[in-house]
Amino acid sequence: MLALILAGTAFAVHVNVAAVDLVPGQPIVADQLYDVDMPEDLVADAVSNVEISELVGRVPRQLVPKGSLVREQHLFEAGTAAGPEAFVPDGHQLVRVELPSGADFPLPTDRVDVWVKGPEGYCIAAEASIVAAVDGPDGAKMVKLGNGGMSAAWVVIPDAAVERVRNAAKRPVLALRNAIEVEKSGRLLCGSKPKETP
Predict the structure, then answer these.
(1) For residue range 90-109, what is the model confidence (pLDDT) as tens digits?
(2) Which are the contacts of 108, defined by CB distance < 8 A and separation ≥ 6?
(3) Cα distances (angstroms) measured from residue 58 to each of 30, 35, 188
């Protein structure tokens, strides 16, 4: 398919393509990539003009499907440690949240709101938090995509919300965050006052 699109086009830019699915949090190895030359206007934000050796060891921040161009926006900064810790910025911690038995969501890199039960009922302790890993049926922490049967999710939580999540009266509830959702009306953040109805 790629060959048909590029037929008769002048090649200008050297780019890297995923030979397999690149898993978030797992360092890239050389045989997971191959090189192609493509028209510059098609790959403006791709990782271009670099040797594969320069990408070896870099850590994807999201799933890069097989056959996709590897773009700088897909990768963490060079030198970022592999594994779930790659997703944890300063001022945040990884917190393990138990899931209902046999859960098949959320998956690594999903965004979730973390709901906890407090004195006033349920509220959001941390919103749009990223899931860095899940525990599989055997309890092993995985950053790759699972096939259901997960027992817990490792969620990146701001320092200010960690104790509220860890000390919740009941197991925190994870709700998938719609990627295009911007308006948060009706979502009560813990510690905030309920909105007055007009």
Answers:
(1) 999 999 998 887 777 888 88
(2) 24, 25, 131, 132, 133, 134, 142, 143, 144, 145, 146
(3) 11, 16, 38
Q: What value, to the nearest 5°, has the Cα angle with vertex 33 and ends 27 and 37?
A: 140
Q: What is the CATH number of domain 2-74?
A: 3.90.1210.10
Residue position matching structure tokens 């209902």: 100
Q: How many residues does the chain have?
A: 198
Query: Tell me, what DSSP letter sits at residue 189?
Result: B
DSSP string for 82-138: SSGGGG--TTEEEEEEEEEEEE----TT-EEEEEEEETTEEEEEEEEEEEEEEE-TT
- Alpha-carbon span 75 to 78, nearest angstrom: 8
More confident residue, 16 or 120: 16
User: pLDDT of 158-186, one tens digit each?
Assistant: 999 999 898 887 889 898 876 445 344 45
Nearest to 158 by CA among 150, 149, 166: 166
pLDDT surpassing 70 at residue 193: no
Q: So where are the chain's domains?
A: 2-74, 91-176
Question: Tens digit of pLDDT for each residue in 52-78?
Answer: 999 999 999 888 999 998 988 889 988
* In the block, residue with structure tokens 């393509």: 17
DSSP 56-91: TT--BSS-B-TT-B-BGGGBPPTTPPSSGGGG--TT
